Amino acid sequence: MGDLFSDSASVRLPAVAPLALRMRERLGWKVVYDCMDEWTNFPGFGQSVLSIEEKLVRAADATVVSADRLEEKWKATAPRLVLARNGMDADHYRERYVRGREHEELYQLAEALVEWDERITMWRIRHYKVVARIIGDQVVGTQGTPVEVLGKMIHHNFFPALWRARNQLTTRANEEEAT
């Protein structure tokens, strides 16, 4: 898997796909489509957006889906498809981490996602501290966002299920050591 997220674009809405794909062409970025929903059910998502989504799934370096039905929908289209369920399926993640070498690509993707999440957090911390140092931490920033909102974003994880899986694995390991 290598360093999938060193220079990458995470796409959550199909409408952003053309920009992400241009960044790949011009800068060599990887494109990861985080497919969280079945967009056919959303008002305002017409055939043009759904067509862009299909092109995105075909072109993405990885497509991460959040449900079994999305995995079923895209399995014939996506060159690299990973199921990362919404919510926490502890047995599912525990099996993949404990037996990670049997599922090496999935294990490496999970590790890359956690690393990317951590890198975003580190960037947010630095950004918040620079902004707070320059203009203060209890004012409205230059883009109209209160600086304190930046501070709260430090605690946001993009992949909370993967972080919960680590907590559960540590708890399990501690319980096994105690017995």
Count of separate DSSP helical elements = 7
Total domains? 2
What is the number of E strands?
A: 4
Overall structural class, as computed from helix and strand content, comes to: alpha/beta
Give the % helix.
Answer: 40-55%
Tell me the Rg in angstroms.
19 Å
Write down the secondary-structure element order: EHEHEHEHHHH
Point out poorly predicted stretches: 1-5
- How would you describe the shape? globular
What does this structure look like?
The protein is built from 7 helices and 4 strands. A 4-stranded parallel beta sheet has the order 1-2-3-4. The radius of gyration is 19 Å and the shape is globular. The longest helix has 32 residues, at 104-135. The protein has 2 domains: 1-86, no CATH class; 88-179. It has 179 residues and is an alpha/beta fold.
Q: Which key phrases capture this entry?
A:
2 domains, alpha/beta
Describe how the helices and strands are arranged.
Blueprint: E1 8-11, H1 17-27, E2 30-35, H2 47-59, E3 62-65, H3 68-74, E4 81-83, H4 90-98, H5 104-135, H6 147-153, H7 160-178
Parallel strand pairs: 1-2, 2-3, 3-4
Helix pairs in contact: 4-7, 5-6
Summarize the structure.
The protein has helices spanning 17-27, 47-59, 68-74, 90-98, 104-135, 147-153, 160-178; strands at 8-11, 30-35, 62-65, 81-83.
